[in-house]
Amino acid sequence: MIRTTVATSLLFCLCTPVFAAEADSCATVRLAEPGWNDLALTTGAASVVLEGLGYTVKSDLLGIEVIYQSLKENELDAFLGYWDPAMQTYAAPYEADGSVERVRVNLDEAKYTFAVPSYVAEAGVRDFKDLARFGAEFGKEMHGIEPGSNQLMFDVIADPAFGLEGWNVVESSETAMLLEVQRKVDRKEFVVFQAWAPHPMNNAFDLVYLTGGDAHYGPNFGAATVSTQVRKGYLADCPNVGKFLQNLSFDIAFENEGMGYLINESMDPREAGQKILAARPEVLDGWLKDVTTRDGQPGLAAVKAALGL
């Protein structure tokens, strides 16, 4: 019996990573997101998993600039939503001085640029340079999301190549912007707005992404990746959580479905995270490879038990 117990213990040690004891400060994982549904979902799903591992998660709703300043000042630990290249302006100074570190790309095949309803495209608006000709129809307005998240729209207006002098950016929130788009679509009115994938808006609206924004949004309709970032030294300070963040990745279908729970079923981010993980439990195998609970037990089994899987 003693030999069997020793052999089992050795096998567990060989199969399960052993991290140095994490500092007490690692017991609470401090996250933030800017109020975008995609990041609310991914942060909610990550929070559910971390809680299943025995961590306490504190998640704040903050503007982009505040998120980066908070990471620099060690008031946040991780951010799952660096959209590249759309957010380069915000992140570059912090990555350059080393106060914010990039962990990995957690989503490929994203995109982010201007869009219009298909009836507006059929009327002749298919490129950024078409906007000026229809200024009256648009009311010289373009619709963005939260203040602090629309700098590229302001840059486009300031770019003389597009002839958009006198145009305004209507800043509100993702939800308010989409409600306004829906109102205008219902009335067949002209509207140009900030659009992206993944997002259920791509199913809710018959929309067309505009060409011509490469200088500001990048090629291929603002083709983007989304990456995880952490405060300086976090991966070394909290290696078990760090390993989870190094494993964590999503796909377009996962996010489209999960964001639908937020938008169409009015779930909060943790509820949506739980529901999408129940629908897609296979993702946990990769997310929790070589990850333990806070007290060193197998992470995958603990999270599945916490989720009732």
TrEMBL record:
<feature type="signal peptide">
    <location>
        <begin position="1"/>
        <end position="20"/>
    </location>
</feature>
<dbReference type="GO" id="GO:0022857">
    <property type="term" value="F:transmembrane transporter activity"/>
</dbReference>
<keyword id="KW-0732">Signal</keyword>
<dbReference type="GO" id="GO:0033265">
    <property type="term" value="F:choline binding"/>
</dbReference>
<dbReference type="InterPro" id="IPR007210">
    <property type="entry name" value="ABC_Gly_betaine_transp_sub-bd"/>
</dbReference>
<dbReference type="GO" id="GO:0042597">
    <property type="term" value="C:periplasmic space"/>
</dbReference>
<dbReference type="GO" id="GO:0043190">
    <property type="term" value="C:ATP-binding cassette (ABC) transporter complex"/>
</dbReference>
<protein>
    <submittedName>
        <fullName>Choline ABC transporter substrate-binding protein</fullName>
    </submittedName>
</protein>
<feature type="domain" description="ABC-type glycine betaine transport system substrate-binding">
    <location>
        <begin position="27"/>
        <end position="277"/>
    </location>
</feature>
<dbReference type="Pfam" id="PF04069">
    <property type="entry name" value="OpuAC"/>
</dbReference>
<dbReference type="InterPro" id="IPR017783">
    <property type="entry name" value="ABC_choline_sub-bd"/>
</dbReference>
<dbReference type="GO" id="GO:0015871">
    <property type="term" value="P:choline transport"/>
</dbReference>
